[in-house]
Amino acid sequence: MRRKDTQCQAFVKRVIMSRLFKIMMISIVSLNAFFVVLWTDYNTKYNLFRLFEVSELVFVSIYSSEFCMKLYVDPINYWKDGYNLLDVIIIITIFIPYGLRRFKGKHYPYLNIADGMQSLRILKLITYSRGIRTLITAVGQTAYIVASVLILLFLLMYIFAILGFCLFGVPDKGDPNNWGNLAVAFFTLFSLATQVDGWTDLQEQLDSRNLPLSRTFTITFILLASFVFLSMFVGVMIIHTEDSIKKFERELMLERHVTLMEEKQVIVRRQQEEVSKLMQMQKNADYKSFSELVENFKKTLRHTDPMVLDDFGTSLPFIDVYLSTLDNQDTTVYKLQELYYEIVHVLSLMLEDLPQKKQSQSSEKADEK
User: Fold this and answer.
1) Do 165 and 181 form a contact (C-beta atoms < 8 A)?
2) What's the predicted TM-score (pTM) here?
3) Residue of 147, 120, 162 whose CA lies nearest to 33
4) Cα–Cα distance between 323 and 332 in angstroms, integer?
5) Comparing C-alpha atoms, which of 273, 274, 264, 278 is closest to residue 307?
């Protein structure tokens, strides 16, 4: 069904798509995040309690108004965008604490969790930041490859966890605190793989018990897990991030080109209207010719008036003329070369005949004597 409020819809769409609206929303979300930081300090929260209540009502009203405006513009395709769904989830988490206080009371045990989830509000910046969306797209594209790398890392840790349990998990001579069962061995291997500060203490505990092959075991696992698998994981992320950034730059250049073409069309349309006005003025006023009218119009032009020039490099008639000109130039150069060859040939013949003429003249003079 066709909507009857198309003009109002178009106006609201221009508002939410405008650069000013995006800047305002980014500023509001950032200010809300700053207020949440202040809210975590109990003294500040006590002294500025009324300010926090009023600001919370303002922020919730703005977020709800933004949701209603976007839903009004396109109520069907709104739910097909993942970032819009993220905004809906954030709005739902905003209203959860109010519902819990209303129905469960202020002393509900899980109310603190609902208050802590208010930090998700800062994720609304993703909707208005194309750079963050590009990085999220890159992470999403690497999901399959990253999952494969993580599975290989899990298999490696499983093998070394079983091996470490058999070598160092003996209750009497081993280290049962770090290798006593499979779960503890997995946690120990995770500490070795991420190379946190405690991995040296783990190795010292193994050395203190004089366990054989402990250093070989530790070095081998760190080389495989940290320098191979984790480096592979980082490399995959970097490659896909670069691809996403290049795609983002291409889209940005295309948008700029479209914007420039729209501005050019506006200028051309205005120039056509001005020419039509000139033609109408020629009919109504006493001008002898159109050129006289144009000359009179030139006197009213300003240096700031934009003019659109044709791009001759992409004009088909210009390309035809240019190619024919090149062909004529090639033909002319070829004919000049032939002329030069003929001139050189004539000069060479003249030089060959010159000694014979000198000899004939000297012989004639000798005969006269």
Assistant:
1) yes
2) 0.55
3) 120
4) 14
5) 264
